[in-house]
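hey m, so remember when u said the tokens were messed up on ur end? i reran from scratch. heres the input so u can diff it against urs
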Amino acid sequence: MSSAATFWNSLPRVAGVELLSHDANGLGALAKPAGVLSHPNERGQDRGRALLDADYDLEAECFVWTDAASGAERRLWLLNRLDSATSGVILVAADGKLAADVKAQFQRKAIAKTYVALVFGRPRAPREVWRDRLAVERKGGVVRSSAAGGHIPAESEFRLLRGVQGAQPLALIELKPRTGRTHQLRVQCARRQLPIVGDQTYGDFRKNREFAKTVRSKRLFLHSLETQVRYAWKGRDWSFGARAELPAEFAAALGEA
């Protein structure tokens, strides 16, 4: 087994975190379950609830641990984050310079993300581009966004995948954010009377309670399905993609289990 394969296969992943893929340059992707943190908080707490069971350097934005077999220090850089309640693809890098270069290229919109969400309600059209102005407030370490009175542009592509009829209409939708604002997709859905099922911050609390009793799941039904990135490295252009299939809770909620 090559040293690169050994590195990726020996990541100290917590239960439920899956290695999706990695390329020859050291760019990789993990699938994060709902409820797992992208990284521990700034006090180093919740270590066992983050992607890796390892220390985290907040300044460098990387996990740090000692390899059990060789005793060497290992690092894995985090390239993007998902809310704890959101599942799906997270990009990582095994090289610090590669991580910095790829992050810089994110700013040039060289990354495409596709999310899937289960929402309450009926969308008014099968496809739309959602454009909003968000306000973001940080208070006591908690970040909240609002579509009222904001000035930060947020844009997403929306597509209806399927409607689910019943006493409480549901819809499975695809969302492709063109901007990356805090809680952007959750706020944009709520603004259009399509709150994401299980959203405890921007959702419909009564409907969440009723739904949870029926399907026995309180999770946020928002999932990062696929990420594609184009990047330049060592004089060449590269492309990398990863896909994390929908978790079983989605099939159960749609009556497909």
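this time it looks ok to me. The chain has a mean pLDDT of 91. if urs says something different then somethings off w ur setup not the seq
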